[in-house]
Amino acid sequence: MLNFHTCTLSSIISIAIADIKNVSTDKISRITPLNQLVLDPPLPYHFELIVKDCCSAARYCCRNTLVKYHHRRDESPCPATWDGWNCFDSADEGMVNKQCPNYIYGGSNIKADYDRHSKKQCNAGGWELPDGLKEHTDYTGCMQNDDAQAKLIAGVIAYSLSVVFLLPAVVALGFFRPIRKSPMFILHRQLLISCLLYGVFYLCSTTFFVVSFAPLSGQVFENHIFCRVFFSVQLRYLRMTNFSWMLAEAVYLFRLLQTAQHSTDGETMNDYKIACWGVPGVITMIYFIVRGMNDDTGMCWIENSSNAWVEWMIFAPSLLAMGVNLLLLAVVVIILVNKIRCDPHLERIQYTKAVRGAVMLIPVFGVQQLLTIYRIPNTYYQVADQSLNGLQGLFVSLIVCYSNKTVRECFTKWRSTYQEKATLHTECRQRMSIQESGRLILKSPQVTTEHVQL
């Protein structure tokens, strides 16, 4: 026996929604399509698609079950039923598992996870219905909170560590005078700033949009213009600036080796700044306009556009920068090896610095992203991917700042100067204190003693 109540009702709703565009306006004066409902707060952009998918599944469940049991009697204690989300065939006593439908996660475009199932208990008297419920299915197995929480925690920890290391590094490279105007350290500082901004934006988006009870989480479902701009800056602009400054590091190192006899200390690196900050900005603005005109739906554009060519406006420059970086790194290593082999009496210190720069580019241009360029639907893999991406800023700061000999020498010199000034200041205060004490003694009145003769 089939539970006709929910199944038939869902089928009727499904047919009504599917055929609503073919009905004249006067016949649907009391029916408003889902995409025209004005509610506060508004429905998610994909709500209509979810309802249609769910109703289509209900209609299929009805028809399939009616055909299956039309010519034979079902003796099973638990009849076929539609619980509102999933279709359960008639079953004998025991636990019945059913794969979680895609639409409960937000649409049919979500990849199915075959390891997640809902559960329904069948007893001798029928389906288990606790507390007098008409339908009961355990969908806790379909929840993704554990996986999402693991990735979220990994990302927060990784980016927090990067921000903690990046902030002092940025300050240090801009504070010490000997390296403040050095072209190489200007590039290093700009790359660190790019990584720092991305980490700060990630932590802010997690705090204000993603976590439970986030103050601006409602804007995500509303697809608000503010969060669209915010995530476009974070996920598109700042990510491209990272790749741009990685490319700038490789290009400058290549130029340094090709023109080793020419000093580059006088360069202001303004051309690099305009290119690496400006070009990603122009591309992001074009992306924002084009996506707004062609695909304005989405939860604040956190996910990629349904039009693949729109996302390739971001993917293509990033992949191009990564490919050129790999090529330049290989060329740099070849040049170094050839020069050292041809003349073993060359000044090796100069090329040691270049080799360190080449090694620095390995984590700087994001080799870990090549290892994780294909997204495997595995929690451990995704946590590792999130951790490596988040720790990139930490690795870069360690290489270009904390382990850099020039930076350490500047810090040591600054600390010695600071200690000398502190010591001199202390001595001056002590001398002034002694002088003030002496003056007080000299100015104090002399005590006269009168001798009385008896």
From TrEMBL:
Limits of the G-protein coupled receptors family 2 profile domain: 61-146, 151-404
Q: How does it sit in the membrane?
A: Multi-pass membrane protein
- Residues annotated as transmembrane: 152-176, 196-217, 237-254, 274-293, 313-337
Swiss-Prot/TrEMBL GO biological process terms: adenylate cyclase-modulating G protein-coupled receptor signaling pathway; cell surface receptor signaling pathway
**Which keywords describe this protein according to UniProt?**
Cell membrane, G-protein coupled receptor, Glycoprotein, Membrane, Receptor, Transducer, Transmembrane, Transmembrane helix
Q: Give GO cellular component annotations, separated by semicolons.
A: plasma membrane
Q: Which PROSITE patterns match?
A: G_PROTEIN_RECEP_F2_1 (PS00649), G_PROTEIN_RECEP_F2_2 (PS00650), G_PROTEIN_RECEP_F2_3 (PS50227), G_PROTEIN_RECEP_F2_4 (PS50261)
What GO MF terms are annotated? G protein-coupled peptide receptor activity
**Where is the protein found, in the record's own terms?**
Cell membrane
- Tree of life domain: Eukaryota
InterPro entries this protein is in?
Answer: GPCR_2, GPCR_2-like_7TM, GPCR_2_extracell_dom_sf, GPCR_2_extracellular_dom, GPCR_2_secretin-like, GPCR_2_secretin-like_CS
Coiled-coil residue spans:
none
Family in the record:
Belongs to the G-protein coupled receptor 2 family.
Return the PANTHER family for the record. G-PROTEIN COUPLED RECEPTOR SEB-2 (PTHR45620:SF42), PDF RECEPTOR-LIKE PROTEIN-RELATED (PTHR45620)
Report what the protein is called.
G-protein coupled receptors family 2 profile 2 domain-containing protein
